[in-house]
Amino acid sequence: MTVETRLITESDYPDWLRALSTGFLRPPVFTDEEIAERRASMDLDRVRGAFDEGRCVATYRSFPQQLSTVGGARLAASAVSNVTVSPTHRRRGLLSRMMNAELADAKERGERVSTLIAAEYPIYGRYGYGPATTTTEWSVDVPRAGLDPRRSGPDDGGRVDLVDGTDVRKLGPELHQRLAAAQHGVVDRDELWWRVNTGAVRMPAFPWTEPFYAAYRAASGTVEGLLTYVADDKWGDGKQPLNTATVRDMIALTPAAERALWHFVCSIDWITTVRSGHRAPDDLLAHLLPDPRAARVVTQADFLWLRILDVPAVLEARTYPTSATLVLDVRDSSSLAAGLFRLDATPSGTTCTPSSQSPDLTLDVRDLATLYLGDEPATRLAARGHLDEHRPGAAALADTLFRTGRRPWCPDVF
Ligand SMILES: CC(=O)SCCNC(=O)CCNC(=O)[C@H](O)C(C)(C)COP(=O)(O)OP(=O)(O)OC[C@H]1O[C@@H](n2cnc3c(N)ncnc32)[C@H](O)[C@@H]1OP(=O)(O)O
After folding, report:
1. Probe ligand 1: pick from 62, 85, 103, 116, max atoms within 8 Å of CB?
2. Based on CB atoms within 10 Å of each CB, which residue in 22, 49, 202, 366 is the most buried?
């Protein structure tokens, strides 16, 4: 049986969407309106499929993305999404064919990294991707948190106001730009993201529940935070409220905003549980509660995966807290990014160039991805057997160079 993998054409698109839903175990039916809406957001030059006797049996898409690195610079990324192979055609190498073609194209286009959110951990390491951020979700037992039940609002001169989706579409993009400049690991959100996530565009495959939105304004009058949450209207047999508030999105540009919005959602009458949604592992939430043990971690897992395509460009793009030199031997089974590189880092600027010196550290390109945004120290990678140290102290030096004060965080699934 010959199965062809290729970029799709306009006429393939409805069948491609059907295959995508089939692979994600969602009902494979679409209205004409949904087909048109989804088609408008896709650049067919970056949409691949596999075809068997004319029927689409695998899907794969990439789109241009900006990834915030340490220090606030944005890296041109190729974001990979919509990866499926129909259950009739699994484990015949279709994903590998589409992935290898797309990574070569991304490198050719000059994209520095490829990014994705992995459905399952074992899939993408073989293609040079490594987990680069961690996601944490907390469940807060509100009655145990110890917040003052008489609390009526922020005590810092700021205020929290309920707003609507139109306000969020106006306020959100600028707040998100500021978040992206301050927080490494953040990926950009386009206009469609804001429309879909405020209900302005609705897709039958993703039933919409209108959420509540709240904005925090500092005493200066500047909006510094936005919160989106839903509640489930649950009551106990004894007529006690047992509502869970689930946070869909929270942007907090300052610790004051973070504090005000967490305290707000944990103080809403009838809410006895708060689910935090995808947060950074070092989110302040637990420690903003008088009793931090009221916040229990319910999810802790890898989140954003990175595939470095251009080692010098990527290493030069981020900032480093101190001056040091390291020679890295980067291994890459596909040869897209392999090489020996000398990193001369300083707080005011960094160069990374091919080198012929003997290496201080050897690591696979996927482990460089895990090191890159500062989520995992080099010494821990060495302890796990993922990094070889050739010069004593080199791994500890890499810790100093790559670690960051706050952990990287990617708020979005894509
Ligand atoms: C970014 C995203 O979109 S994440 C979403 C990914 N999609 C899904 O999880 C949907 C359900 N799963 C699928 O559609 C498919 O199983 C896919 C896309 C994950 C894999 O597609 P396949 O065509 O079966 O993969 P392919 O045959 O190219 O496999 C390549 C290698 O990866 C391995 N592999 C593939 N999928 C998995 C998996 N889920 N777990 C472990 N190993 C896997 C294969 O065994 C093979 O290993 P080998 O090189 O040692 O022989």
Report:
1. 85
2. 49
